[in-house]
Amino acid sequence: MPRGVPNAKRDESAMRFTSFHVPLALNPKHMNSTYLKSESQTLWSRNAVRAHRSRVALDDTGAATPTETLTFWQTRRGSKVVVIHPGSRFLRIGRASDVTPLTIPNVIARKHNPPVPAPVYVEGISRPREDRKRSTPSVTAPSADEYAINLTSDDPFDAKVAAITVSLRDRMRFYKLRVTPNAAAIATSFNEQFKPEIIPETNDPYSVDWIYSSDEPYLVGESALRLANPEEMGYAVRWPIYGGNFNTRDYPSQQVLYNDLETIFRESLKQKGVEPSAYKDYSVVLVIPDYYDRLYVEALVRILLVDMGFKQLCAQQESLAATYGAGISNACVVDMGAVKTSIACVDDGMVIADTRMVLSMGGNDITEFLYVLLEKIGFPYRDLNLARSYDWNVMEDLKARICTLAEGDVALNLYDFYVRRPGKPTEKYGLRAYDEIILAPMCLFEPRVIEFEHKRAGMRFLTRAPDIADEMMEKKSDDKLPEKFQDKLPELYTQAMLISTQHLFPVEPPAINLEQVQTMIPSVVQTPATEDPSAALTPLPMSAATTTPVTPAGEEPPSATEGAKEEDVEMTDATAPATESAAPSASGVDDDASSENKAAEVAAPATDVDATSNAATGDPPIEIIDVDEVDGKQTAPPVGYLSEQQQQQQQHQQQEVAPHLQYRAQRAIDVSFEASKLPLDVAIFNSARAAGGDEKIRKYLQAVLVVGGTALVPGMAHALESRLQAIATPLVPNMEKVQIIPPPKDVDLRILVWKGAAVLGKMDGVADLWITAADWDVFGFRALKERCYYL
């Protein structure tokens, strides 16, 4: 820069491609103006004053509707507030003054140009081999010990089920419950020989009124599920919500998804008597997930405020709404839905952000796992297809009636179920099952049978709306994570997720000059194209903890969660729980030097190049081959090879850089995805642990609130209490009894979150949290950020 030219501040006004001079902003310290220095000068205050003057003027003129002409429900508090709780399987919507919400399936069937895509069910549970789908069970009990099992199969699925069965048998041994010998073979022989009973339509009070023809452009809710053959009728059936986010797998574009979701909202409100012309008079309380995607929240707000034209909106998190519905102020809320299970701790009306966790498992996994287990023992209904809505309802009904987590209910019992198909009479089947009724819901505590990669296959990241500036979308950044995650995900991980995945990370080495690292990397990884890489490169030193374990042929590598939890959870004080390895000591986050955690470490393969750059560019990693291991002898160095002194100097540099390269390579993992594989009891303990010290852990484990439809499984409360007690007793000093808070009397756990949001919508304090369409037009997403203190 020439002498005498001042060092002007860099122009950040996005006008760098013009010659127009943009003057720098004035220093507010030197200004005598009072502009925007008081609360009354903000747009929020001016809007409130304008609304107050409008109400006063309306009262003076007497133009308002007389109170005498209003109906009873219109005069109730909250009658002009609509509460919307979108879920993966069901949408719950209604006025805040209603006792119960309208619950409809969150599905739409819309006319589609041929060819209509066939319904496809994404399998989330491991499947046995084709030759072992219908065979004698592979687990047998010897005569010496009725609780022991013998695995007589080499199928990986049978090995996973046997591991869950071991945990069940150990709990039955503790409760001194007898095991029925050869129960699986007895059930199989009965089911394979059973013939269904035909029920006439006149004798079936629950017969379904199927839709065989329709000219409607779309059908919503139950009507969409009553289509006899959607594919032949030209309807594409889709579910817009999946696991607390949009179902981008089944939609070609986001705008089509938004239109379907808006249509579901409009049709649901029609059933509640709210017409589109009255939207401008209604306020909306939107229930969002605890661990939310900001683009998901932004899209929902845009639909409700801009496209549908509601008066104002307030967004609240699920866990906070659940505590209001239960009438408590502090709790560890476990919301068990159809696709996901979310965990968060609430402290005096505030969700602690670092305690949030999301597990990629829920009621749908129990339903699918129950079907796979029943198929192993000769399920009598042979033509069941989970992609068809009526077949899925058969398994949902079976799950609701026979599944349990109480070990005392395990017996060789006879069950019946009905199959109602379009164009065919109702069929009544009989079924005998033994421990399948408890093994299915135990997948929440032993998630080794869940295929997490399959469940997120085909999902796409949401794209940002054009009117949202980058500075409005604040998110955590980490230079050790791939750039694609930093650009797409609004919130990468929480402290609870880091605690849950700390066994995947090596110990971070001491700080080093990054410029020195960048200058060292080319000398390590660059190789002339004409040279042999095996002879020209020296291998990076690798510790024993970061080497990749060798897996024999035909065996599956251990998952990140299998090392974090063993098969059995003993509830005796004399025996330490096996889950202690997955739940590290509560003294601190970095306390992973114990042998249990080291045994559970699953390190990614360490490479000589930065995995972060490779993940971002898509280039294959460069393999380092030891020259001493090529053909069992030393290979002659090529022409131009470094001298011995240069080799020693380069090796010294590599030894300094290698730990940092390995750390950055192994740090480049999806923390939130890996944390979603944890067992339910371990995840709850880690969530409470992220709230603070031992006192906080005791506080939240003694107030665990379980909500959601999956929480209705019989024995869920005792199963959680016993497993959490086994984890917390040896790790938390002075730990008393873990307590699962019972729900309020006569309140369904499935609507408890909606009830809490309705309570929030009727409170006077929510008046400061409303945002209007005018606010959204001025501020955009920043309006939510300024009015909702948790965004």
UniProtKB/TrEMBL annotation:
Organism per entry: Trametes coccinea (strain BRFM310) (Pycnoporus coccineus)
Protein name as it appears in the record: Actin-like ATPase domain-containing protein
- Family, per the entry? Belongs to the actin family.
Q: Looking at the record's lineage, which domain of life comes first?
A: Eukaryota
Q: Where is the composition biased (Low complexity)?
A: 574-587, 645-655
Disordered as annotated region, ranges: 529-620, 633-659
Q: InterPro entries of this UniProt entry?
A: Actin, ATPase_NBD
